Amino acid sequence: MTGIDSTLLIPEHDRQRLLECKHHAPHDFYGWHPTPTGSVVRARLLGALRVELLIHNTTVEMQPMGDDIWVTGLADKHAPDYRFRVTYPDAEPLIQADPYHFLPTLGALDLHLISEGRHERLWEVLGANVRTYSTTLGEVTGTSFAVWAPNAQGVAVVGDFCGWNPNQYPMRTLGSTGVWEIFIPGILPGATYKYAVQTAQGQRIDKADPMAKQTLAPPETVSVVAGPSSFQWSDEKWLSKRQEIDTAEAPMSVYECHIGSWKQGATYRTLIDELVPYLVDNGFTHVEFLPVAEHPFGGSWGYQVTGYYAPTARWGSPDEFRELVDKLHAHGIGVFVDWVPAHFPKDDWALARFDGTALYEHPDWRRGEQKDWGTYVFDFGRNEVRNFLVANALYWCEEFHLDGLRVDAVASMLYLDYSRNPGEWLPNQHGGRENWDAVQFLQEMNATVHRTHPGVVTIAEESTAWPGVTAQTSSGGLGFSLKWNMGWMNDTLEYFSLDPVHRFHHHNEITFSLVYAFSEKYVLPFSHDEVVHGKGSLWQRLPGDDWNKAAGLRSLYGYMFSHPGKQLMFMGCEWGQTTEWDEAHSINWDNVSENWSHGYHRGIQRLVRDLNVVYRDTPALFSQDNTPMGFQWIKSDDAQRNVLAYLRWGSDGNPVLAVVNLSGTSHLDYRLGLPIAGTWQLVINTDDAVYGGAGNDLAGTVSTEPTQWDHFEQSLALHLPAMSTQLYKLER
User: Which is the catalytic residue, given 209, 294, 461, 530?
Assistant: First the structure.
């Protein structure tokens, strides 16, 4: 440092903090700054042999002052534009702009909204965002990095562009927000990076970016700078039409899909060629993907998320996922994705203890941990955390044109004592078990999504009797569009798993769902959770030999499609997969191959296809799902013969008659009273030979007779094959 003016030097206290990457304001010392006699330019360029300042069409030699810091004094007091020409060993000189010469990339309004927890486009200001600035010496393109870490002593960007050295690019804090920021010229899309966080305890921890829009595929844990999307959407008509759809009045038959095991080796691109036509051919209206946000452990099925803003790289790039969504829309298929705001894993490179403290998670383990799952629970009462999650919901809707979010594990969010023993949970301010912070978050998320993206559906996986899950937030509800009907699912599968001779004693289980069917807006789910962890596939859970299993499954699907509520079916269920789901292997496509020992599974698949077609074309089966006006019992009390019969009424006034025989014997000339006279056309018979059934010769049309029955003035006499469902439309 001999011969360097002392006014150009960095005070020793600040210098030491800078060298240790524990300084909150490196921009106060690096870059250009005025002095009493002119100005000074300082830079820290690790490993440089020579540094020249290119300024005012001249070249100024900069002087080393130790620790890779270079300095030069200038007579000019006005802030100039300049570049560095840096010579490194065995390399040609590089000309680069100074990262510490740029203004913050977040403005005062951004910082205010972040502190308030109300920045609805958080991904545009936090994380890594490629930007271009115009300067007097030309355009400068690089990446701005910004991260929330309020309790850190220092934060630096590390990556492949600096040899992962935390001393090259220390960041600055912006006010009291806890946001650290830097713009680094020359960092382009594809660069890999993390944040080196110096904790208050003096430890360095390298963290993936919570706001990363792209990652390397697991087991890698680094974030990737994602440039602006180059994908050209072509779904404008779809999005415009979606805004006009009333979910409650629209058909919805959802195919739940885990990408990695639909077919092993599947990618976003291969799904375009294989899954899209499959869904169209089988008549589904929507597909619901298990979580596609980045997750390190495939065995979690995506429910332990580490990259909330990044589609997992194991199946392709973000733009390839966009292309998949676009192609699904082009073929009339809506796209839902499972979303997991309830909890996150404890991986030390991700969200857990992000700045050395409980930041995203609640600090008290009695609220901040879900011990059954080995995960942390979000601190829903913290503004910045709530903002992170609400903005994330908007991000998926905005950037990937999703049509819906299925929110996982809502019950675990609503109750402070969820899966906790006495002494392991903290009551709320009123001494109760309700998590009012989570309630407020869910209300805000739903209201914001529905306001900003009309037509987008939010669906709650909620297994309790919490009131008003699908009620509007303005009336105190949670504001979801739909709720999974877990009670219906459990009762139905319990009933159908019984041998028909025992069903007489459990008739109330199959009719109970109509007691509460209109208390919420429901989805009827046969989801992945019901075909895993030793539960067996639906096929395995049904009693009897293969013929009886097939008949039972066909009657179950006929009953499901005629019951009030939207439908959801996990992949493989559409043909009655014989084996339990295993995410490490493809679903059992052999079941529907020509080489399989019998055609029951192809028959079940054909039935589901036909049910989907009839369902979509018949308003009575969907248009009044959520009102008692859409349902009328015809026969609910025949436990002895295991028969159910009911009318579904459409908003157009046209009914469908569903008759379900869940016994092991056929009933000849079974009489049903009806409130309306006329001729009824058979549109679905699950016992039809084309579905693998017995092929009983049922009349294609039947007409009522003026015979009083069950307090009705007219009635029908029907043949009800064993374990079958028939659907009839009234001919007008």
Answer: 461
